[in-house]
Amino acid sequence: MYKFFSRPQLRRQFSDKAKMSSKLSNTKRPPKDPPDEGYEPTSIDHDGIKVPDYVRPAAFRQFCGPDEQLGPGAGRGLEYKNGQYFGYHRFSFAELQNHALEMRDDRRLKGGVHDTIEEDEEEECDYVSMENMKKLEAECDKIIAQQAKELEEAEQRAKKKQEELCKEQEEKQRCEKKAEKTKAVKVNALLEMTDEQLREWCDKSLQAQLVEKNQGKGNSQTAKCKAEEKQKMEKCGEEEQKKEQEELQMKCEAEQKKKKDEKLKPKCEVEEKNNKEKCKEEKQKKEQEELKMKCEAEHKKKEDEAKNENEEKPPCGTDGSNKNKT
Protein backbone atom coordinates (compact mmCIF):
# COMPACT_ATOMS: atom_id res chain seq x y z
CA MET A 1 0.00 0.00 0.00
CA TYR A 2 2.83 2.39 0.77
CA LYS A 3 4.39 1.86 -2.63
CA PHE A 4 1.04 2.41 -4.39
CA PHE A 5 0.58 5.85 -2.81
CA SER A 6 4.24 6.95 -2.66
CA ARG A 7 5.14 6.76 -6.30
CA PRO A 8 2.46 9.08 -7.70
CA GLN A 9 3.20 11.64 -4.95
CA LEU A 10 6.90 11.68 -5.78
CA ARG A 11 6.18 12.02 -9.46
CA ARG A 12 3.89 14.97 -8.86
CA GLN A 13 6.36 16.71 -6.56
CA PHE A 14 9.45 16.40 -8.76
CA SER A 15 7.85 16.75 -12.13
CA ASP A 16 8.34 19.96 -14.13
CA LYS A 17 4.81 19.93 -15.60
CA ALA A 18 2.24 22.39 -14.37
CA LYS A 19 -0.55 21.02 -12.23
CA MET A 20 -3.99 20.67 -13.75
CA SER A 21 -6.58 22.94 -12.21
CA SER A 22 -9.71 21.40 -10.74
CA LYS A 23 -11.94 24.17 -12.07
CA LEU A 24 -14.40 23.56 -14.84
CA SER A 25 -13.36 24.89 -18.22
CA ASN A 26 -15.45 27.36 -20.19
CA THR A 27 -14.90 25.51 -23.47
CA LYS A 28 -17.96 24.28 -25.34
CA ARG A 29 -18.85 20.62 -25.56
CA PRO A 30 -17.78 18.99 -28.83
CA PRO A 31 -20.73 18.40 -31.20
CA LYS A 32 -20.15 14.60 -31.32
CA ASP A 33 -20.31 14.10 -27.55
CA PRO A 34 -23.48 12.58 -26.08
CA PRO A 35 -25.84 14.68 -23.93
CA ASP A 36 -25.39 14.81 -20.20
CA GLU A 37 -28.63 12.97 -19.45
CA GLY A 38 -31.00 10.66 -21.27
CA TYR A 39 -28.50 9.14 -23.73
CA GLU A 40 -29.49 5.47 -23.85
CA PRO A 41 -29.43 4.25 -27.47
CA THR A 42 -30.71 0.76 -28.28
CA SER A 43 -28.67 0.12 -31.43
CA ILE A 44 -25.78 1.41 -33.54
CA ASP A 45 -27.15 2.58 -36.86
CA HIS A 46 -24.08 2.51 -39.09
CA ASP A 47 -23.12 0.11 -41.88
CA GLY A 48 -19.35 0.48 -41.47
CA ILE A 49 -19.21 -0.67 -37.85
CA LYS A 50 -19.81 -4.17 -36.54
CA VAL A 51 -20.13 -4.30 -32.73
CA PRO A 52 -20.64 -7.50 -30.70
CA ASP A 53 -23.86 -7.98 -28.80
CA TYR A 54 -22.31 -7.74 -25.35
CA VAL A 55 -21.09 -4.13 -25.99
CA ARG A 56 -23.50 -1.37 -25.01
CA PRO A 57 -24.51 1.07 -27.78
CA ALA A 58 -24.01 3.96 -25.32
CA ALA A 59 -20.23 3.56 -25.78
CA PHE A 60 -20.56 5.06 -29.28
CA ARG A 61 -21.67 8.48 -30.42
CA GLN A 62 -24.84 9.20 -32.33
CA PHE A 63 -24.34 8.96 -36.11
CA CYS A 64 -25.99 11.17 -38.71
CA GLY A 65 -26.92 8.13 -40.79
CA PRO A 66 -25.83 4.65 -41.84
CA ASP A 67 -23.63 6.08 -44.65
CA GLU A 68 -21.74 8.64 -42.55
CA GLN A 69 -18.03 8.84 -43.36
CA LEU A 70 -16.12 7.66 -40.30
CA GLY A 71 -12.59 8.57 -41.27
CA PRO A 72 -10.01 8.37 -44.05
CA GLY A 73 -10.33 4.83 -45.40
CA ALA A 74 -12.20 3.51 -42.34
CA GLY A 75 -14.83 0.81 -42.74
CA ARG A 76 -15.44 -2.94 -42.91
CA GLY A 77 -14.18 -3.54 -46.43
CA LEU A 78 -11.72 -0.60 -46.50
CA GLU A 79 -8.05 -0.18 -45.57
CA TYR A 80 -8.56 0.85 -41.93
CA LYS A 81 -10.66 -1.92 -40.40
CA ASN A 82 -10.98 -0.37 -36.92
CA GLY A 83 -13.74 2.06 -37.82
CA GLN A 84 -14.99 2.04 -34.20
CA TYR A 85 -12.19 4.45 -33.34
CA PHE A 86 -13.98 7.23 -35.21
CA GLY A 87 -17.27 6.35 -33.48
CA TYR A 88 -16.16 6.86 -29.88
CA HIS A 89 -17.01 9.93 -27.80
CA ARG A 90 -15.40 11.49 -24.74
CA PHE A 91 -16.85 9.03 -22.23
CA SER A 92 -16.53 5.84 -24.30
CA PHE A 93 -13.55 4.55 -22.30
CA ALA A 94 -15.39 4.92 -18.99
CA GLU A 95 -18.49 3.25 -20.42
CA LEU A 96 -16.53 0.29 -21.77
CA GLN A 97 -14.51 -0.07 -18.57
CA ASN A 98 -17.60 -0.07 -16.34
CA HIS A 99 -19.28 -2.64 -18.54
CA ALA A 100 -16.18 -4.85 -18.50
CA LEU A 101 -16.04 -4.69 -14.68
CA GLU A 102 -19.70 -5.65 -14.45
CA MET A 103 -19.11 -8.63 -16.71
CA ARG A 104 -16.08 -9.66 -14.63
CA ASP A 105 -18.06 -9.51 -11.38
CA ASP A 106 -20.87 -11.58 -12.91
CA ARG A 107 -18.38 -14.18 -14.08
CA ARG A 108 -16.81 -14.41 -10.64
CA LEU A 109 -20.19 -14.88 -9.01
CA LYS A 110 -20.99 -17.71 -11.44
CA GLY A 111 -17.73 -19.50 -10.64
CA GLY A 112 -15.58 -18.35 -13.53
CA VAL A 113 -18.12 -19.23 -16.26
CA HIS A 114 -18.40 -16.73 -19.07
CA ASP A 115 -21.65 -14.82 -19.18
CA THR A 116 -22.72 -15.40 -22.75
CA ILE A 117 -25.82 -14.00 -24.28
CA GLU A 118 -25.95 -16.82 -26.79
CA GLU A 119 -27.61 -19.10 -24.22
CA ASP A 120 -30.72 -16.95 -24.12
CA GLU A 121 -30.76 -16.87 -27.89
CA GLU A 122 -30.44 -20.65 -27.96
CA GLU A 123 -33.31 -20.97 -25.51
CA GLU A 124 -35.43 -18.69 -27.66
CA CYS A 125 -34.41 -20.61 -30.74
CA ASP A 126 -35.30 -23.87 -28.97
CA TYR A 127 -38.71 -22.47 -28.04
CA VAL A 128 -39.33 -21.34 -31.61
CA SER A 129 -38.09 -24.64 -32.98
CA MET A 130 -40.44 -26.53 -30.61
CA GLU A 131 -43.39 -24.51 -31.86
CA ASN A 132 -42.36 -25.16 -35.44
CA MET A 133 -41.97 -28.87 -34.69
CA LYS A 134 -45.44 -28.97 -33.20
CA LYS A 135 -46.88 -27.27 -36.28
CA LEU A 136 -45.04 -29.70 -38.53
CA GLU A 137 -46.28 -32.65 -36.52
CA ALA A 138 -49.86 -31.42 -36.82
CA GLU A 139 -49.45 -31.01 -40.58
CA CYS A 140 -47.89 -34.47 -40.84
CA ASP A 141 -50.80 -35.97 -38.87
CA LYS A 142 -53.25 -34.35 -41.27
CA ILE A 143 -51.36 -35.69 -44.27
CA ILE A 144 -51.20 -39.19 -42.77
CA ALA A 145 -54.94 -39.11 -42.02
CA GLN A 146 -55.70 -38.07 -45.62
CA GLN A 147 -53.49 -40.83 -46.96
CA ALA A 148 -55.22 -43.39 -44.70
CA LYS A 149 -58.62 -42.23 -45.96
CA GLU A 150 -57.45 -42.48 -49.56
CA LEU A 151 -56.15 -46.00 -48.93
CA GLU A 152 -59.44 -47.08 -47.35
CA GLU A 153 -61.40 -45.66 -50.26
CA ALA A 154 -59.10 -47.44 -52.73
CA GLU A 155 -59.57 -50.75 -50.86
CA GLN A 156 -63.34 -50.30 -50.86
CA ARG A 157 -63.32 -49.61 -54.59
CA ALA A 158 -61.19 -52.71 -55.22
CA LYS A 159 -63.58 -54.82 -53.15
CA LYS A 160 -66.58 -53.49 -55.08
CA LYS A 161 -64.87 -54.26 -58.39
CA GLN A 162 -64.06 -57.79 -57.24
CA GLU A 163 -67.67 -58.34 -56.15
CA GLU A 164 -68.95 -57.08 -59.50
CA LEU A 165 -66.54 -59.36 -61.36
CA CYS A 166 -67.64 -62.32 -59.25
CA LYS A 167 -71.29 -61.56 -59.95
CA GLU A 168 -70.62 -61.35 -63.69
CA GLN A 169 -68.77 -64.65 -63.62
CA GLU A 170 -71.60 -66.34 -61.70
CA GLU A 171 -74.15 -65.01 -64.19
CA LYS A 172 -72.05 -66.30 -67.10
CA GLN A 173 -71.80 -69.71 -65.50
CA ARG A 174 -75.58 -69.80 -64.95
CA CYS A 175 -76.22 -68.84 -68.56
CA GLU A 176 -73.83 -71.53 -69.80
CA LYS A 177 -75.52 -74.13 -67.62
CA LYS A 178 -78.94 -73.09 -68.92
CA ALA A 179 -77.70 -73.27 -72.51
CA GLU A 180 -76.27 -76.72 -71.92
CA LYS A 181 -79.54 -77.88 -70.40
CA THR A 182 -81.58 -76.50 -73.30
CA LYS A 183 -79.23 -78.16 -75.77
CA ALA A 184 -79.53 -81.47 -73.98
CA VAL A 185 -83.34 -81.15 -73.95
CA LYS A 186 -83.38 -80.30 -77.67
CA VAL A 187 -81.10 -83.22 -78.49
CA ASN A 188 -83.29 -85.60 -76.51
CA ALA A 189 -86.39 -84.24 -78.19
CA LEU A 190 -84.78 -84.67 -81.62
CA LEU A 191 -83.81 -88.22 -80.78
CA GLU A 192 -87.36 -89.02 -79.74
CA MET A 193 -88.82 -87.52 -82.96
CA THR A 194 -89.77 -89.61 -85.94
CA ASP A 195 -88.48 -89.09 -89.45
CA GLU A 196 -91.47 -87.01 -90.56
CA GLN A 197 -91.22 -84.79 -87.49
CA LEU A 198 -87.48 -84.28 -88.12
CA ARG A 199 -88.16 -83.26 -91.74
CA GLU A 200 -90.80 -80.75 -90.65
CA TRP A 201 -88.45 -79.36 -87.98
CA CYS A 202 -85.61 -79.02 -90.50
CA ASP A 203 -87.89 -77.26 -93.00
CA LYS A 204 -89.05 -74.79 -90.36
CA SER A 205 -85.52 -74.07 -89.19
CA LEU A 206 -84.36 -73.52 -92.79
CA GLN A 207 -87.22 -71.12 -93.45
CA ALA A 208 -86.48 -69.22 -90.26
CA GLN A 209 -82.80 -68.92 -91.25
CA LEU A 210 -83.74 -67.68 -94.74
CA VAL A 211 -86.09 -65.08 -93.23
CA GLU A 212 -83.35 -63.88 -90.90
CA LYS A 213 -80.88 -63.63 -93.79
CA ASN A 214 -83.34 -61.69 -95.91
CA GLN A 215 -84.04 -59.35 -93.04
CA GLY A 216 -80.29 -58.83 -92.54
CA LYS A 217 -79.81 -58.17 -96.24
CA GLY A 218 -82.76 -55.82 -96.27
CA ASN A 219 -81.40 -53.97 -93.29
CA SER A 220 -77.97 -53.78 -94.91
CA GLN A 221 -79.48 -52.58 -98.18
CA THR A 222 -81.56 -49.97 -96.39
CA ALA A 223 -78.46 -48.83 -94.49
CA LYS A 224 -76.54 -48.58 -97.78
CA CYS A 225 -79.37 -46.66 -99.40
CA LYS A 226 -79.52 -44.29 -96.49
CA ALA A 227 -75.77 -43.76 -96.61
CA GLU A 228 -75.94 -43.11 -100.37
CA GLU A 229 -78.80 -40.67 -99.90
CA LYS A 230 -76.82 -38.87 -97.21
CA GLN A 231 -73.81 -38.66 -99.49
CA LYS A 232 -75.95 -37.34 -102.31
CA MET A 233 -77.53 -34.78 -100.03
CA GLU A 234 -74.13 -33.73 -98.81
CA LYS A 235 -72.85 -33.42 -102.36
CA CYS A 236 -75.89 -31.40 -103.38
CA GLY A 237 -75.44 -29.18 -100.36
CA GLU A 238 -71.77 -28.67 -101.19
CA GLU A 239 -72.60 -27.84 -104.82
CA GLU A 240 -75.25 -25.37 -103.72
CA GLN A 241 -72.82 -23.79 -101.30
CA LYS A 242 -70.20 -23.52 -104.03
CA LYS A 243 -72.75 -21.90 -106.38
CA GLU A 244 -73.81 -19.44 -103.72
CA GLN A 245 -70.18 -18.62 -102.98
CA GLU A 246 -69.47 -18.08 -106.69
CA GLU A 247 -72.53 -15.83 -107.03
CA LEU A 248 -71.46 -13.85 -103.99
CA GLN A 249 -67.97 -13.50 -105.43
CA MET A 250 -69.38 -12.29 -108.75
CA LYS A 251 -71.58 -9.76 -106.99
CA CYS A 252 -68.68 -8.55 -104.87
CA GLU A 253 -66.46 -8.20 -107.93
CA ALA A 254 -69.17 -6.28 -109.79
CA GLU A 255 -69.68 -3.95 -106.84
CA GLN A 256 -65.94 -3.43 -106.56
CA LYS A 257 -65.72 -2.61 -110.28
CA LYS A 258 -68.56 -0.12 -109.95
CA LYS A 259 -66.87 1.54 -107.01
CA LYS A 260 -63.57 1.68 -108.88
CA ASP A 261 -65.31 3.14 -111.97
CA GLU A 262 -67.04 5.74 -109.82
CA LYS A 263 -63.73 6.66 -108.22
CA LEU A 264 -61.91 6.75 -111.59
CA LYS A 265 -64.56 8.81 -113.43
CA PRO A 266 -63.45 12.23 -112.15
CA LYS A 267 -59.82 11.28 -112.72
CA CYS A 268 -60.60 10.21 -116.30
CA GLU A 269 -62.50 13.40 -116.98
CA VAL A 270 -59.62 15.46 -115.67
CA GLU A 271 -57.16 13.45 -117.78
CA GLU A 272 -59.34 13.90 -120.88
CA LYS A 273 -59.48 17.64 -120.33
CA ASN A 274 -55.75 17.77 -119.88
CA ASN A 275 -55.23 15.69 -123.01
CA LYS A 276 -57.52 17.97 -125.01
CA GLU A 277 -55.68 21.03 -123.79
CA LYS A 278 -52.36 19.40 -124.63
CA CYS A 279 -53.62 18.50 -128.10
CA LYS A 280 -54.73 22.09 -128.68
CA GLU A 281 -51.40 23.42 -127.53
CA GLU A 282 -49.56 20.97 -129.78
CA LYS A 283 -51.71 21.96 -132.76
CA GLN A 284 -51.05 25.63 -132.10
CA LYS A 285 -47.32 24.97 -131.87
CA LYS A 286 -47.38 23.00 -135.11
CA GLU A 287 -49.27 25.78 -136.89
CA GLN A 288 -46.83 28.38 -135.60
CA GLU A 289 -43.89 26.26 -136.74
CA GLU A 290 -45.46 25.85 -140.17
CA LEU A 291 -46.00 29.58 -140.45
CA LYS A 292 -42.40 30.20 -139.45
CA MET A 293 -41.20 27.72 -142.03
CA LYS A 294 -43.31 29.36 -144.72
CA CYS A 295 -42.07 32.83 -143.79
CA GLU A 296 -38.46 31.64 -143.83
CA ALA A 297 -38.97 29.95 -147.21
CA GLU A 298 -40.47 33.10 -148.73
CA HIS A 299 -37.67 35.22 -147.29
CA LYS A 300 -35.07 32.91 -148.82
CA LYS A 301 -36.82 33.03 -152.18
CA LYS A 302 -36.79 36.81 -152.13
CA GLU A 303 -33.12 36.89 -151.23
CA ASP A 304 -32.31 34.43 -154.01
CA GLU A 305 -34.28 36.47 -156.54
CA ALA A 306 -32.51 39.68 -155.48
CA LYS A 307 -29.10 38.00 -155.88
CA ASN A 308 -30.01 36.70 -159.32
CA GLU A 309 -31.16 40.13 -160.44
CA ASN A 310 -27.91 41.73 -159.30
CA GLU A 311 -25.85 39.16 -161.16
CA GLU A 312 -27.82 39.60 -164.44
CA LYS A 313 -27.42 43.43 -164.57
CA PRO A 314 -24.58 44.63 -167.02
CA PRO A 315 -21.82 47.01 -165.90
CA CYS A 316 -22.51 50.78 -166.33
CA GLY A 317 -19.02 51.99 -167.67
CA THR A 318 -16.99 50.96 -170.75
CA ASP A 319 -14.18 49.79 -168.54
CA GLY A 320 -16.59 47.67 -166.66
CA SER A 321 -16.77 50.11 -163.80
CA ASN A 322 -19.83 51.70 -162.35
CA LYS A 323 -18.57 55.28 -162.78
CA ASN A 324 -20.61 57.79 -164.76
CA LYS A 325 -19.44 58.99 -168.12
CA THR A 326 -17.74 62.37 -168.28
TrEMBL record:
Pfam families: NDUFV3 (PF15880)
Positions in coiled-coil regions: 133-172
Organism: Drosophila persimilis (Fruit fly)
Source superkingdom: Eukaryota
Biased composition (Basic and acidic residues): 234-314
InterPro entries xrefs: NDUFV3 (IPR026193)
Name by which UniProt lists this protein: GL18535
Keyword line: Coiled coil
Region spans: Disordered: 1-48, 234-326
